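Residues determine shape. Take a concrete instance:
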Amino acid sequence: MESQDIKPLNPKDEQLIENKNLSLFEALLPIFLLIAILAYNVYAYGDSATSGPNQFALIIGAAIAAVVGFRNKVSYSAMMEDISKNVKSTSGAILILLMVGALSGTWLLSGVIPTMIYYGLQILHPAVFLPACVVICAVISIATGSSWTTSATVGIALIGIGSTIGMPLGMVAGAVVSGAYFGDKLSPLSDTTNLAPAMAGTDLFTHIRYMILTTVPTMVLTLVIFIFLGLSQTTSGISDNTETLHSIKETFSISPWLFLVPIIVIVLIVKKTEPLVALLIGTLLGGFFALIFQPELVAKIGGSDKLSFISGYKGVMNAITVETSIETTNEMLSNLFSSKGMKGMLGTIWLILCAMVFGGVMEAIGALTRITDSLLKLFHTTFGLFASTVASCLALNLTASDQYLAIVVPGKMFSKAYADKGLAPENLSRTLEDSGTVTSVLIPWNTCGAYQAGVLGVSTWSYLPYAFFNIISPFMTLLYAAFNIKIKQLTSK
């Protein structure tokens, strides 16, 4: 399972559309105009730009790309075919998003998230909280192979703890994302970790061993930065959590038994259960535990003073589907203990669908291949080859809005170039992961960026400056290439 927990449609058979009539300017024009509109949306709307303006900006970008396509004799039906293919490829992600919304609702109502926050507040001191977030998320994502599952389970709880102790949520989300993508990138259970070597022409464990050379130093730097950030934030942290802890325990029935729910979900993921199935089981377990541990809260959410079959059913169903809020004696906790359910994920799903429309048109008119091919021809040195690969992955994450295409397309385009320069294929597979996998989450309209923002409740722009692991990774791979550090050669051309 990869960050998206979904598999692309036959990535090895992905057809790269080439349009020789399309100029580089025409290929880049929709991107430049889209970025200009998105930038103005952020200026005008701030964090709320993702509530609608950015979605329509992607549609405008797709329309501009379609006009370019019509000028180059690309048919409307060809564009619609690629849009349909792109939308179909996100169906698994959309279902998972809905299920994560449902899971967060029942985990709040059952007391799972409040229990994790309750014990976390007693264990995680503000001075070590940020690096601890990185380490915890790294361990979970290595075990599950999924940054998405990590964010949907421990990530939500860590955001809650960070909010309670007064940590800036952008920093906390950046720490969660950094740790989640470290594990996702190295875990043999991850789809991208399997996809990158398949595209480059090497094997899984050679790829992982070679990737450790750049990934571990990047993680060490990330931890050092978060340690210093954590130390600088201790003065704003809450030194006495007694009142907060009392308020949580007064509202919820807190019990270590509630940890069974997330543990079961993580075990299911590790045992290679389909993520959608595991999340559904987690949602149902959350609802069951809510009836056992929080009967009064369930009845209240169900619109009654007393738990009955009807009020119990309505309470759990409301937590799953719509926004629910649980009042406490602490105003800050009252704001924290709210969930939007499946309904709260619709904005993120809307963003993903619009991004797939833009990416589908760009692919259909041959713009993606034209941009990548131009980057390939731009450089002739070994460092230039690595740099063009990194730029290609970033460009695909920006334009196709899909992490898989950011690995598949450059992987296909550059594999021969690496072989021609006598470079082992693991150089390519490592670069694809260092730049394609980890940067997808930094782009608000990419499926990964939209997901993380939706699940963690922190905008992509807010956590982007603090996602140090994801920011440093592409530069680390370029540093290795520039100084010829651990650049493996082919034994024979």
Remarks:
- Residues 204-233 form the longest helix (30 residues).
